[in-house]
Design goal:
The complex is a heterodimer of chains A (about 475) and B (about 210). In chain A, helix 2 packs across helix 3. Chain A is built from 15 helices and 19 strands. The relative contact order of chain A is 0.13. Chain A folds into 2 domains: about 260 residues, Aconitase, domain 3 (2-Layer Sandwich), CATH 3.30.499.10; about 180 residues, Aconitase, domain 3 (2-Layer Sandwich). Chain A is α/β, with parallel strands linked by helices and about 475 residues long. In chain A, the strands form 5 sheets. In chain A, strands 5-4-3-6-7 form a 5-stranded parallel sheet. Chain B is α/β, with parallel strands linked by helices and about 210 residues long. Chain B has 2 domains: about 170 residues, Aconitase, domain 4 (Alpha-Beta Barrel); about 35 residues, no CATH class. In chain B, the strands form 2 sheets. A 4-stranded antiparallel sheet of chain B has the order 1-6-7-8, with no helix packed on it. The longest helix of chain B is centred in the C-terminal third of the chain and has 14 residues. The two termini of chain B are about 40 Å apart. Classes of the chains: A alpha/beta (about 475), B alpha/beta (about 210). Chains A and B meet through strand 1, strand 2, helix 3, helix 5 and strand 8 of A and helix 5, helix 8 and helix 9 of B.
């Protein structure tokens, strides 16, 4: 009666520390240019080296420019971090997938793509969206930079076993509905604190039917449910995705690994601290209206009215969110005029995301009032898209086709939405100021973002 | 790390739920490591011209320099940036009390000798009211796990024994675990037999270069 989480956790306990605490083995540590340099510097300052350098991988994604023709120094403040990451990775002997090099990309895009992420692994990164990697059946979670030092020095972390939550998503996705719409609706229903102190497992027929790239999108927003990790049990879809990737096992070793991975599922009688089931069949295209991912609305929806909210604290928060977003109470969300469109981020920058956006953009023009960007998640995604001619589809529609990285999702590279400007973004956070001071962010799927670019407003992609 | 044993001082109220780490420290400001305290809570704390917003309680004379922050639920949700903790410390806070916290932020606090206290909604409501009244000092006794309000009401809080001990002693986790490397190495030796594919990464290093 073990859960999938139990099986992975228990297999990684090096030492029981008592009171639900364990010294847990960490099988993979990924570093990026924002948090990686601090962890590496602190490690080296103590006179230490990585305990197992072959388990550590680095890339530059957060603070590097996404401008066509960029170098690491195009955005100078990020250039300092990039230079530090390169130097420190070399000093520590850590494999870096640098700009322009095969493997470079958003850390949660390149990891699965290279086969660095495998079922049953424990994997950490100094980044809250590390939960993305749970899509492959790995126990993956974000850490702070000091925990990162501990893991580099010892290949372990001291961790308290979290509570467990299962989110069963049943039914079939309707037309124009993607994993992004499903997870935004789920957050809207359950709230951003529903999974706090829990590890989440996503299960159910809708999840089983999803591709790995869709599951990566789903798990990406686990942290927006409050959970440090979100996981999907590995299945034939997973094994087929992994086979042949550069760092995946090969031949007889792959078969042996698959035998092992087939045991990674929650037993029928497994118990969860929270067990919720949602029918996704009625979910439609979804967009956020406010400043938290739980401010999710079906595209036909209207913004809330603070006057009809009984709790004074919530009333104030809703009013503040409406004011920040420049929206009226009870306003239909469709039709709000858009200034910027961003297609990218660890939520939605993979090849299937770009195909979905390109299918909408093809033969249309970006509205004259909109600046629209496509930022592929990795060099491999960029090359694949170019081989399929998607870059030409985007360019001829008037989108900018840019270099891989985090870009405008977190605006750590200076690529900001202007104060008061309204953006439809395929990223995962619509927090106050996330995309720049005063930026107004609406989260949506790649197809919905492409529809917003073309029409110049928040628009139901099914009506195009 | 500086041990945390006891703290006596005023508490600044911040009655907002879901204050995320992007609001606590903007990402580009988080690079300015020497001045994080100045950048903390910028969207709540400053007007667009850089002047202070009087509505932000820690800007008010009664709360300036207070070592305790009383916050709304789900404080520190969002990004894993540890600079969020450093920024709050940079303002002079040593403890934050809320009904709940973002998981990664909560963990990061303990790495820095900073105490996050979880209390019930009712307790936080009372603490918030007493903080807003500005009636006097709060006392936090970590060994006894009690917060005492200015009017003398004691609230007991839960904390993991390992974390409490770490704060009380100012312990360094890395130093502690390094002493257990032989345990780690023997676990790894077994794992290399059972899951060789986990460890086969070095042989493949050049294939993607």
């Amino acid at each position: 009666m073990a859960t999938l989480f139990d099986k992975i956790w228990d297999a990684h306990v090096v030492h029981d520390l008592g009171d639900d605490w364990a010294l847990l083995h960490i099988d993979r540590q990924l570093l990026h240019d924002l948090s990686g340099p601090h962890s590496l510097q602190a490690l080296l300052d103590r006179g230490l080296k990585p305990a197992d350098v072959d388990l550590v991988f680095a890339t530059a994604d957060h603070a590097v420019s996404s401008a066509p023709g960029r170098t690491g120094m195009t955005y100078p403040p990020g250039g300092r971090l990039w230079t530090a990451l390169k130097g420190l990775a070399a000093d520590a002997g850590v494999r870096l997938f640098d700009l322009g090099e095969d493997g470079q990309g958003i850390v949660h895009v390149m990891g699965p793509e290279l086969g660095l992420v495998l079922p049953g692994l424990t994997l950490i990164c100094g980044d809250s969206h590390t939960c993305t990697n749970g899509a492959l059946g790995a126990l993956a979670f974000g850490v702070g930079s000091t925990e990162g030092v501990h893991a580099l020095a010892t290949s372990t972390l001291r961790l308290r076993r979290p509570k467990q939550m299962r989110v069963k998503l049943e039914g079939r996705l309707g037309r124009g509905v993607t994993a992004k719409d499903v997870i935004l609706q789920t957050i809207g229903i359950l709230g951003t604190a529903a999974g706090t102190e829990h590890a989440i497992e996503f299960a159910g027929s809708a999840v089983e039917a999803m591709s790995i790239e869709a599951r990566l999108t789903l798990c990406n927003l686990s942290v927006e449910l409050g959970a440090r990790s979100g996981i999907v049990a590995p299945d034939e879809t997973t094994f087929a995705y992994i086979e042949g990737r550069p760092f995946a096992p090969r031949g007889a070793e792959f078969e042996r690994a698959v035998d092992h991975w087939r045991r990674l599922y929650s037993d029928a009688d497994a118990r969860f601290d929270q067990d919720v089931a949602l029918d996704v069949s009625d979910f439609g295209p979804t967009v956020t209206w406010g400043v938290s991912p739980e401010h999710a609305l079906p595209i036909e929806g209207r913004t809330p009215d603070p006057e009809s909210t009984p709790d004074p604290g919530q009333r104030g928060a809703i009013q503040a969110a409406l004011d920040y977003m420049g929206l009226q109470p009870g306003q239909p969300i469709a039709g709000a005029k858009v200034d910027r469109v961003f297609i990218g981020s660890c939520a939605n920058s993979r090849i299937s995301d770009l195909r979905e956006a390109a299918a909408i953009a093809k033969g249309h023009k970006v509205a004259a009032t909109v600046t629209a960007w496509v930022v592929p998640g990795s060099l491999a995604v960029k090359r694949q898209a170019e081989a399929e001619g998607l870059d030409e589809v985007f360019r001829s529609a008037g989108f900018e086709w840019r270099e891989p990285g985090c870009s405008m999702c977190v605006a750590a590279n200076g690529e900001q939405v202007a104060p008061g400007a309204r953006a439809v973004s395929t990223s995962n956070r619509n927090f106050v100021g996330r995309q720049g001071p005063g930026a107004r962010t609406h989260l949506a799927s790649p197809a919905m973002a492409a529809a917003a670019a073309i029409t110049g407003e928040i628009f139901d992609v099914r009506r195009l | 790390m500086t041990p945390f044993v006891e703290l006596v001082g005023r508490a600044a109220p911040l009655p907002l739920a879901n204050v995320d780490t992007d609001v606590i420290i903007r990402i580009e400001a988080s690079v300015d490591r020497q001045n994080l305290g100045r950048h903390a809570f910028a969207p709540l704390r400053y007007n667009s011209d850089g002047s202070e917003r009087a509505e932000f309680p820690p800007n008010q004379p009664a709360f300036r320099g207070a070592p305790i922050l009383i916050a709304g639920a789900n404080f520190g949700c969002g990004s894993s940036r540890e600079t969020a903790v450093w920024a709050i410390q940079g303002m002079g806070f040593r403890c934050v009390i809320a009904e709940s916290f973002g998981d990664i932020f909560y963990s990061n606090c303990f790495q820095n000798g900073f105490l996050p206290i979880r209390l019930s909604e009712a307790a936080v409501t009372d603490l918030m009211a007493q903080a807003q009244a500005g009636a006097g000092d709060f006392k936090i006794d970590l060994a006894g796990q009690v917060v005492t309000t200015p009017n003398g009401t004691p609230y007991r809080f839960d904390i993991d024994p390992l974390r409490r001990e770490g704060l009380l002693e100012g312990l360094d986790d890395v130093g502690f675990t390094l002493k257990q490397m032989s345990l780690i190495r023997s676990w790894q030796a077994r794992d290399r037999e059972e899951r060789p594919w986990v460890w086969a990464t070095s042989g493949l290093r050049k294939t993607t270069a």
